[in-house]
Design brief:
Arp2/3 complex 21 kDa subunit ARPC3, two-stranded antiparallel ribbon, ECF_trnsprt_substrate-spec, mainly alpha
Length: about 180
């Protein structure tokens, strides 16, 4: 794993990595424009997909960087509340998690399910309620957040599986 991470940190100097990462950041920002805001503490967005692809294509470090930069630009372009570094941390961790699970690994439905499950539990169920409690005093245990996680789980898995299989078919990801 250490070799996996260090080999991609040198990739940050590669022009193809920088260009591809920039495109994924732009895609994440654009996709985030089409989020569904239910309330100030609950919204649905598919901006995770470009961040997940960044982790799968370029590794956990670059995936985390893509997530962090995309989150900051999304806030600058279209904020839906005050800036809070916890949500940027969520985006960074999302890229890292997808990179750890998918970078240079065989793309299987089981691996993607596990990856989305870990990311969802850590980010959606654990960290986001902490940040929302700090910001708005929201409850730590919120049924709508769990319903959102359960409802979006098969959608996220399907989107990621289809995108990653497509990228594999065109030899854009290594295994």
């Amino acid at each position: 794993m250490k070799e996996n991470i260090s080999s991609k940190s040198t990739g940050l100097k590669d022009i193809r990595t920088l260009t591809g990462s920039s495109l994924l950041v732009a895609m994440s920002v654009i996709v985030d424009f089409f989020r569904i805001v239910i309330s100030n503490i609950l919204e649905i967005s598919f901006g995770f997909a470009p961040i997940a692809l960044g982790g799968a294509i370029y590794g956990p470090i670059v995936g985390g960087i893509i997530g962090g930069i995309a989150d900051i630009i999304q806030y600058l372009v279209r904020s839906s509340g005050p800036f809070f570094p916890g949500f940027t941390l969520n985006a960074i961790l999302t890229g890292i998690i997808y990179g750890l699970f998918l970078y240079k690994k065989e793309i299987t439905l089981k691996r993607i399910v596990l990856c989305v499950l870990v990311e969802g539990i850590l980010i959606t169920i654990i960290l986001t309620p902490i940040w929302l409690n700090i910001l708005y005093g929201a409850k730590f245990f919120a049924i709508p957040r769990i319903i959102k996680f359960v409802a979006l789980f098969p959608i996220k898995v399907s989107i990621l599986y289809a995108l990653l299989k497509l990228l594999k078919q065109y030899k854009m990801i290594r295994q």
